[in-house]
Prior knowledge:
Helix 5 runs antiparallel to helix 10 (247-283). The protein has a 5-stranded mixed sheet, sandwiched between helices. The protein is built from 19 helices and 17 strands. The longest helix is centred in the middle third of the chain and has 37 residues, at 247-283. The protein has helices spanning 6-13, 40-44, 62-74, 89-96, 111-128, 140-151, 177-185, 193-196, 199-203, 247-283, 321-344, 372-386, 402-421, 435-449, 457-468, 472-481, 486-493, 497-511, 518-532, and strands at residues 4-5, 18-22, 30-31, 33-36, 50-53, 78-82, 102-105, 154-159, 164-167, 208-210, 218-225, 228-236, 300-307, 350-354, 357-363, 391-399, 427-430.
Amino acid sequence: MTAMLLEQLVVALQDDVVSVLSEGAEAEPRVVGVELLDSAEVVRATAAGHLLLGVGVDIADPGAMDAALRTAADTSCALAVKCVLPAPDGLLARIRSTGVPVLAVNPQMPWTRVQRLATSVLAARAVDSEPDGARTGGDLFSLANAVAGIVGGAVAIMDTQQIIVAYSNLPDQPIDEIRRQGILGRRVPEDAIADHLDRKVWTSETVVRHQRSGSLPRMAVVIRAGEDVLGSLWAAFPDDTAVPDCGPTLQEAARVAALHMLALRRQVDAEQESRDRALRSALEGRSGQSDLPGGVRLPGVLVGLSEAVPAGGDTGDTGDSGVAARRHAALLRLVDLAVLDSRSLGYEPAAALLGEHVYVLLPAAGSGRVSTGVLLDHLLDRARHSLHRSFVAVGSPTVGALSPLLRARRDIDAALDHLRERCADPGAYRTEELRPELVLRRLVRAVRDDGELRTGIVERLRAHDAEHATEYAATLLAYLRHFGDVVAASGALHIHQNTLRLRLRRAEELFGVSLADPTRRLLLTLELTALTQP
């Protein structure tokens, strides 16, 4: 297995993913693989030179940190921990005394992404170390043409999201309707996706022959980098008799394609990280009043997601830090799911986690093949099955500038809070559908916060109720919310209708309540809602 200098790995992963916390005692430490530091049995069997990902290691816990350092030292491995820079001096002194090379991982970066990126970089290094004679072509299109010329077929290379990233264009190539539609749309056609996802193709370690009725015969091979599947390479032939024994050629081509597709993936990931940072900056208001960060693509639709509250309002958060950590981890995984789902359906999203809300910006220009509503339903379904949690999503209207984007975030935040308070069912909602509730929330908050917007009558009602154990405030609010329907209001309060009428008359006598005046009724309703509801 090819080793890579730890310093080179850090450079390849970029500073926003990892950075060197301590170089270790060895002059030039090398990495041959990645392993999770979550199982003592697995780690003890791990060969020297691996990078141990300290999942669950709290650097603020000296015992946990010392145990992780001892494990890394005993196995001659490097260690990666999540740490905000600059690191505390005491932590650095403890690390340096062990001689273990330690990397600091960005706390916002999910461990799953760190593992995938590091594994991909190491796999690319292994492919890159092959002799020059094993390579063909300078890019994927050149590779597709070179392979097509060798095997006498028409070659296409797809990624795992059914996007055709390259295809051969030699004269007189065989072509059928599937290839024609795929090249025109740069995607696997809808009616051929089932064939493209044939399990026999994706689980095979060798070249697989595949043909559907009415189409040309094809040979397919999966493109891998280590255990990571990057895509597939397909070659179409004029007829059954023209299919050569080209398995070794196609397998070698897949090995070469892996190098180029890893580079393409790194570029895509870098662009995604840039868009995500730009969206975070914009939503946090760090872009100024009118400047739009370069990575934010508008017009677009902003979507906010938060975890749904179970029936009864029990969030499961009892103050346990472990519960909070698991919820935060689920939200980080939701960010990954949102990006993957959006990209697989043709969008180029930006995503950010701020507090307890996940935000996804879906550009309107060049949008995917499905509507944002269908995408959100698909994402919520995946999240329920993959994360075993339910979420609510709220989408904004299309926004085209920074100021409307910030207003959209405020509306989404208010909508998510409203849905959480009402223990709304998981699912997708729109701010425009919730506009009356959002306006009422803002009116109520303004009345609650500004005494000049209140008549003062509710304060007198509440003081009297507290002193005399009466229920005038609750009675009036129920009556007003049921539009003066005595039967409905008394039923909601579980009192007799005559009792309700008596309380209303006494309220008019004691506090000057005027239920016949529509203006006073409106003001009383707002004040009661603002001062008697949580």
